[in-house]
């Protein structure tokens, strides 16, 4: 069985969502430039899959491709499979019907996506009346139940309020309730906790876990916060320069990272059990899919890169219980810490321990 077989629905008895060979282009100065390239993964029923990586890696554009929320002039190709349909090949009308009812989306900043001129009641009931055919009274009753289910107190009062009267955490709960109102099969959470304080973050993560357990909801959890991903996700996909570079089940990615990029991301996390003189960083700057160099896109920043990395494009292959896009993945690259320029040996040893 090949990595491609395992990464797609052909080897799985049941999935909620599958992406196969998805490439998305945006229009810049009349030219189409890629922002995600050959992306493939799946989400099973009741599973929370994390999509992690630095800003600009293509995480949000992947979610927007799934949700049909691409900027004007953008083009997507490949397979975005939901049920028996490929959302990239069906008619525009059918795509909007399917995406509107089966895909719920939570954005990073609810204030940017909840109309400030609408009361919460309008935001909550519109989708149910359009996609479920409920009457105004039926939609209102269901909305009150949903607001209560996501932990908002006094839901009837909240229905009468405008967004400006609610806190950021309350608005995020309203957005989650709104996303759940049409009974979607998958929820796309795009940096859903980034703008919230730590306490509210924990509450939202706990809420998503409870909704998954109670409703069998599938979730694509997009974040740059590896600690959050570790806490909530069943499986994690790591993105760099618009491509998936590593996929792991459970805690495997934290206990034994396979890709040098994943290793360096983990090493850059603060660790309360280890003290270091300076937190390590990944040298250089992140690159996008449209600006990626030849060969491995990460090679200019990789401390393990060899000459072949500059010319050989790595395929996603099965290694050690996961999948990785690296020509050196089978080697024990970090069995011995290597000092970076400007670091002492003691600092490097501490950094290696901090990174796991």
In short:
33% of the residues lie in helices and 21% in strands. With 356 residues, the chain is α/β, with parallel strands linked by helices. The strands form two sheets. It has an eight-stranded mixed β-sheet, sandwiched between helices. It has a four-stranded antiparallel β-sheet with strand order 2-1-4-5, with helices on one face.
Description:
This protein is α/β, with parallel strands linked by helices and 356 residues long. It folds into two domains: 3-240, Rossmann fold (3-Layer(aba) Sandwich); 258-354, no CATH class. Helices cover 33% and strands 21% of the residues. The chain has helices at 3-7, 59-67, 92-102, 120-131, 136-149, 155-160, 168-180, 198-215, 226-232, 252-255, 260-267, 345-354, and strands spanning 17-28, 31-43, 48-52, 75-82, 85-86, 103-106, 186-190, 218-223, 235-240, 243-249, 317-319, 322-324. It has an eight-stranded mixed beta sheet, with helices on both faces. Strands 2-1-4-5 form a four-stranded antiparallel beta sheet, covered by helices on one side. Helix 4 runs parallel beside helix 7 (168-180) and helix 5 packs across helix 7 (168-180). The longest helix is centred in the middle third of the chain and has 18 residues, at 198-215.
